[in-house]
Amino acid sequence: MSKPIYVTQPYLPPLEEFIPYLEKIWDNKILTNGGPFHQQLEKELCDYLGVKHISLFTNGTIALVTALQALRITGEVITTPYSFVATAHSLLWNGIKPVFVDIDPNTLNLNPAKIEAAITPHTTAIMPVHCYGQPCDVDAIQKIADNYNLKVIYDAAHAFGVKCHCGSVLNHGDLSVLSFHATKVFNTFEGGAIICPDAKTKQRIDHLKNFGFVDEVTVVAPGINGKMSELNAAFGLLQLKHVDAALARRKEIDAAYRAGLQGVKGIVCLNGGEQTTNHSYFPILVQPDYPMSRDALYQELKDHNIFARRYFYPLISDFPMYRSLPSAERNNLPVATVAAAQVMCLPIYPALSNADQTQVIEVIKRAAA
Ligand SMILES: *Cc1c(COP(=O)(O)O)cnc(C)c1O
């Protein structure tokens, strides 16, 4: 049998290109605590992404937890059940009650039309996700936030480099949080970041990720250790040199899937048309008019050594620490419930060969015949 094809494979630049970075670290012996690579990566990411301020983190989850603390969010936060579990976990880690609101059937992002009904006197913020890198309806969400005096923190873990109608999508809301985990479009092995619009907020975030220290002897908050190391930051600087090529290859693969799967009855490719995503994922819906169920197709691919993933199934609201919440009831979340039952993400990553991609498409077509 041919070698396994996974849903993603981390992008790694040629090893020899990383050696000079290591030599620098060995020379100056600065390993962490906002060293030169950390500072340089913050600057280069601001330029690349078109954002004002960025604070690097050890991972995206600690960045989400810290973003909520930076804005002193309490009470209830409206969020989506259709995401990676870290979105809602960051709320629980702050003693905040997640309130799940259903998603839009086309984008699978939080549905702005459903938000108002979920607002209570305890609501302080909205935490939407740019799912698969597809921008949320940022204007509609901001309008509601303004009307009810709510903060907006975007989980932008999938949205590296995504543009919308007015530049970087990361400039919307009060804060946006990125993940640089190995499986993401831009990775630093583990890593993350908070994007914020003003220097004062960045300073507070920088304090919070360093135990709350503001100087050698002053601690102003029960901060965490969320600092990105020099090793990870150096790797990020190298990755940044290759990221445009990686994104371009993803775009080709995305187009080839759409062409190859066109006309296959019961298979819907999401987020086509506008070309606003970064092709970080290739989600399809396996609908009832496809001859087998989503899970049967998932198994069929597996039998051919192709490991697709059912992102996002199960819904966050179905995990044991959430399912007793009133908002977690399935009849509150009908669109998300159907999406979680039909979705599957196909392999997409820069090193995916045309032959391997053709094999994925062939298995899906053959199973349909
Ligand atoms: C990956 C991811 C996270 C968590 O990021 P880590 O860097 O792995 O901690 C949070 N939210 C979403 C939507 C993600 O996909």
Shape: globular
Are there runs of 5+ residues with pLDDT below 50, and where? none
In DSSP terms (H or I, runs of 4 or more residues), the helix count works out at 10
What portion of residues is helical?
Answer: 25-40%
CATH homologous group name of the largest domain: Type I PLP-dependent aspartate aminotransferase-like (Major domain)
Structural class: alpha/beta
* CATH level-1 class of the largest domain: Alpha Beta
Whole-Å distance between the termini? 23 Å
Average pLDDT taken over every residue: 97
Radius of gyration: 21 Å
Count of β-strands: 16
Reading the helices and strands in chain order gives EHHEHEHEEHEEEEEHEEHEEHEHEH
Number of structural units classed as domains: 2
Give the names of the bound compounds: pyridoxal-5'-phosphate
User: How would a crystallographer describe the biggest sheet?
Assistant: 7 strands, mixed
Q: Please list the strands of the largest sheet in the order they lie side by side.
A: 2-10-9-6-5-3-4
Strand content: 15-25%
What CATH calls the topology of the largest domain is: Aspartate Aminotransferase, domain 2
Name given to the CATH architecture of the largest domain: 3-Layer(aba) Sandwich
